Amino acid sequence: MKISMMVIIIVTTLFCLLPYVWFIMSGQTSIKKKEKQFIKIIKDLNLSFEIKEQWNNNFIGFCQPKNVLIFIKLNNQEHKLFNIELKQIKSCQILATAQTLVKDNKSVSKLRGLDLELIMQANQAPLILNFYDSNEEFTEDLELKRAQKWESLINQNTLKPIVPPKAA
Prior knowledge:
By secondary structure, the chain is α+β, with helices and mostly antiparallel strands. The chain has helices at residues 2-45, 143-157; strands spanning 51-55, 58-63, 68-75, 78-85, 89-103, 106-120, 127-133. It has two domains: 1-46; 47-160, PH-domain like (Roll). Helices cover 35% and strands 38% of the residues.
């Protein structure tokens, strides 16, 4: 009687734990696949990054010697690659889209989208790097702090136009 009860407890415990283990393992393999895709793309570019970050389906990196910013966004085995020379950027700013919800007579702001807008020197259309979109990703992962960090890094490393001193 004791042995059969122990077997039932063990089998029940395994049936409860195995799905969690399976979900964790499948999540780790998808993360490793994304990392391999990012590494392959970066090797093809032949760049080394001093500062880089990877989150969800995104990668951003800065190559100091070449003064280049790389932004990669993976979508269903395809990727968007932005290879931007920082000398072509005039300025950079954060574009945040929020939705205000009223819950229990309290106003709550929910982040809907977060982009980094790069305004180019030569009257080109601004380039928008999407850091977060609530329609694609369901969880926020410190995207605002990440965008602020990269905005300051880009603004520090862009070539500012040299204004000649005024003659007296």
